[in-house]
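QUALITY CONTROL LOG
STEP: pairwise intake check
CHECKER ROLE: data steward
CRITERIA: each record must contain a sequence immediately followed by its structure tokens, with no blank fields

ENTRY 1 OF 2
RESULT FIELD BELOW
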Amino acid sequence: MVLTDTILMVRPLQFSYNEQTAETNAFQQKIDPKYSVEVSNKAMEEFDAFVHKLKSNHINVLVYDDTNEPIKPDAVFPNNWLSTHLDGKIVLYPMCHENRRPEKREDIVESLKNKFKVSAISDFSYFELNKQYIEGTGSVVLDRQNKLMYACLSPRTDLEALETVAEKLGYTPIPFHSVDENGQAIYHTNVMMSVGDEFVVICLESIKEVAEKAMLLGKFDDTAKQVIEISYAQMNQMAGNMLQLRNTKGQKIEVMSTQAFNSLSDFQMTQLLMHSKIIYSDLFTIEKYGGGSARCMIAEIFLQE
């Protein structure tokens, strides 16, 4: 598995519940307006503590502050609009909700171009004109080693956009369907599965089509991935939203939230520890009101200096 020791994160200045995204994200909960400032401040505290924990575990973290205007309640989730690749590509993605599109910042892209070797910028934002979306490594979970692009289709993950991006990047698209307990499409693939170097964490009970489930298990077998299955309850506690990194000392690190960590059984913990050291941080406010967790907050940097 291709792992990185360098990541990009965006410090939220005006984090809040996003009414637009809540239409498709069942993980979000509303904020009482009288607590909005308190919630925003708490989100910044959680972000800073998370960054500190990552850095103390020898992960390089590029932190960019959110801008004051326009207001971007979900700026803390940069992996939805940006991905980088070993061939030097920076990829920009079409975003479903209008108030998230300003998260795509030219100044951040220019900063990356100044720090790293960038061969090309592939901008798929034009799909927004046709109301077709694919929101970065939220919509797709990449097996970079085997060039596979897993994606559960939803209002935020369009099949045609998926196939176009996969072809451009030289990946094989693996589309499937995943639903929550109420039958609603899971909004992003990275809340129900995570691919590591030798394992995959996945909520198999969210995949109702027998043929699709068999197809996925076949892919995992073909690529020698140990399957670590999580339940709906664990998915709802963000156990699917984890990410494997490799720190500057060469140690493999599995990153997740405290809520996700606490949801894991001893057996699941043992399975994960066979592959990586686990680090976790309290992200409860960001999870509760933003509907995303540790993996959503991280855009991996695979560019060469």
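ENTRY 2 OF 2
RESULT FIELD BELOW
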Amino acid sequence: MKKNKILLIGGSGNLGNKIIESNLFKDLYAPKKKNLNLLNSSQIFYILKKKNINTIIHCASLARMKECENDIAKTINNNILGTYNLVKAISELKKKIKIIYLSTDAVYPSIRGNYKENGSLGPYNNYGWSKLSAEFLIRMISDHIIIRTRFYDKDKINYRFSASDIFTSQIEIRSLVKYIYYLILDNFIGTINIGGKRISDFELYKKIKPKLKSFKRKDLIKKLNFKIAKDVSLNLSKFNKIKKKYE
């Protein structure tokens, strides 16, 4: 038996693809959705047992905020019910399995920034509420890691405008993959913010796409029917301590 058999859920998504491409995670099993559907409880239990899974990286979710606002049932199924089924299967298997859950900075109020893991929570849209609900389920597994983050892919900055007054702690997707690996090495348990320095969307993306033009958050809100972050920058004290060990 291999020492650490890892199940990757959400391997077809942007983050899942980068996890696979990194080759950091040995003995990784990344089934397609038709082979592992989180809405199929018996399928989950079968794979966990048959593949002798020791660790799960759960990065599958419905992440498009507009879709989450417009289709609550789909949001619940993808982001809450699927996670419930996974947690239930782990408990029924009666085997110690570490679960790493990719959450979001959208669980914070996103007004003043510098949010700490043990600070105030207050999602500002359906996506945030669904991810926070899933976090509570994940905590029922004693050996868990909840990662609150926001990431971007430097190769996929396809828009022409970006807000100069929306601030985040976004991290490049490849760096996030590396830090997930570090957390496994460190045997970390609990909730952790992962990100970079506080920066506006425009300032960040301008470095990658020099012809990018800026606009204001209020202009974006006029086009949307849901709330968006103002300042969701993260306090990274806990993350920086772990990062220092490996870099």
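INTAKE CHECK: passed for both entries
DESCRIPTIVE NOTE, ENTRY 2: Residues 72-93 form the longest helix (22 residues).
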